[in-house]
Hints:
mainly alpha, Transcription termination factor 3, mitochondrial, 23 helices, globular, DNA-binding
Amino acid sequence: MAASKGLRVFLSLHRSLTFQSTFPLVSVQLSTNSLSTTFCCSAAEDGESNRPASPENESLVDSLSLMGVDTQMAQKRQPGVFRRVFTNEQGLATFLHYKGASCNTIASVISRYPRSITRSISHLDERWTLWRKIIPTDAEILSILDRSPESFFRSSDNESLEKNMNFLISLGLDTKDIHRLLTIAPRTFSNSLELNKQRVEFLEGICVELGGKNPQQFVKNVISKNLYILIRSTKRVRMNIDHLRASLKLNNSELLSLLEGVGAEILYLSNEYLKNSCSNLQQTFALLGSQNADIKKLILKYPVILKISQDTLSSKLDCLLKAGITMKQIIEKPKVLDYSTQNITAKINELEKVGYDFQTKGIQILDMSQKRFIAKIKRLGESPEE
DNA sequence: CATACCGGGATCTGCCATCGCT
DNA sequence: AGCGATGGCAGATCCCGGTATG
């Protein structure tokens, strides 16, 4: 163990020096694999290491602890990393530090995705360069990394990443959407190219199946309206589409325009959730006296309502109805349900103070930004009942 | 000028199961 | 057997303001 500890320090040093002297590193070929192979061999020869169930590498634990890594968490997450003889935590730290990451960020990244320390500098550099093709600043990449280290590090296949980027661009998504996609759903880019292709073909198939004329455009619409779609299984999306069709009795063109329009973003809900949500909504509204046709109209107009949890929905409806607002009004202006119960309640209270009558003046006022609402209240106070 | 319509911005990871490779 | 890579899952809104319209 002592020998390997010495070697580790040596290697880390060597790595750091190489790293610094040759930055920006176009041709450094310190591949983790070849190094670890070499090391495994020499370690096996000294007859001490590589016992089955060899204890975790103490020097690695020490070195990570010094960096502020939560080693317990890390070991629990990816124990295999701690049995490796060669790791590149110093290289990773130097690399991220150079990009502007704080020590805290680096420690937290390693704690949450320990395998990150197995990536070589040249690999990291290559991957970063690819990301920079889409994300304009290092700081932005860092914030994504900090949020989701796994998205950046889970795949070690840079070639696949590049192919994915080219594929997604080839779909005709505009730069803004590609940027949003990598920012918001970075996992899309660590999917295998095959998987992304399958999912895109699946969406095109849906379009054709529903009699759509332009599958490419359909796919673009769906993705840009629901950036999570490519990290959902096709099984899930398929079942949700089938369920929507059946429970709302939608025809092809209604379904098609729902999917590529405002409805896109409910496709990724879990099957159970969507199912429960649909039936709960239909039940609740029916109990409150709404006709099926109205409920369908409501969902087509404001499908996001299916994302609202049962409890939240009933508490929102509750406070609207208590204020004397009718179901008919809610169905006409469902956007009101966008706002939190708290927000709605506060507005209603304000409006009661100035004697606002929802029956004659409508409920549109509840769907107003805070700024506009306050201005409106002020005017109402100045000239009550004109 | 006021309201109505509409789209967009923030955000969505962290864990487990499985598979193929060595 | 154990690893790394990858697929898939659960979780469950709220708010703002540009611009057309009147």
